[in-house]
């Protein structure tokens, strides 16, 4: 199943996507709720929706304003180094254990919403990533069982403010500016993709300019291995997000560096899932627009 959480005149709802058509699952059954958590927490409900969709009215996907797939995740865990060529372009040694960091809820936003270049820096970078939405939580999850814990896959643009990322050995500042991590809009269940979401083209672009282009086959740590490793130290919960790292081609590694600029729109795409688009705006313009609303 392909899901889109989004807003229409009737409010925020969960939609099932088939091509350019979207069926409002929340209208069919109020238990679905306003994001994916209703389906995540009630597997039988998710399974039953296929029959409910048949013959149900639909609306154009283009008429829906995307919202976050999970509005209030408990945890957002990100891999920093998961593609060999990206590790090398950043000047790092190939690690024996994944570089993990956290994102805050204020740092993320829905696909289509502005990605904000902060006042304090012009070094806003792009990072296309496969993102996992956890379905079944747990601790000490075995690698061979880990994919059973995936509810869906989506797309992340892990927008990074590079000078602030490099200020300390911990990457927290550069990865947590408000409104820099775009997620969505489409979430795809594992049965619609290759096992572990391998073999998928992953790419970022501004217009016709291809910035990154690689394949999820190139990940050092698979989805299953990543879930198992994370669950050693923390209990994963339904609705958590796990970002699987970015391939080579990021802006800070180019000569000269290629930073995102206000007025541009950056598209990040994972094959079989979809495109996450973000217009780039300056913080002062973003704040002025918010204040005027």
From TrEMBL:
Ranges of residues in domain Fumarylacetoacetase-like C-terminal: 75-280
Q: Name one GO molecular function term.
A: ureidoglycolate lyase activity
What keywords appear on the UniProt entry? Lyase, Metal-binding
Question: Could you tell me the Gene Ontology terms of the biological process aspect for this record?
Answer: carboxylic acid metabolic process
Query: What single Pfam family name could you report for this chain, choosing any that match?
Result: FAA_hydrolase
Q: Does the keyword rRNA processing apply?
A: no
Instruction: Identify which top EC class this enzyme belongs to.
Output: lyase
Top-level taxon of the source organism: Bacteria
What family is reported?
Belongs to the FAH family.
Q: What is this protein called?
A: Ureidoglycolate lyase
Organism listed in the record: Pelagimonas varians
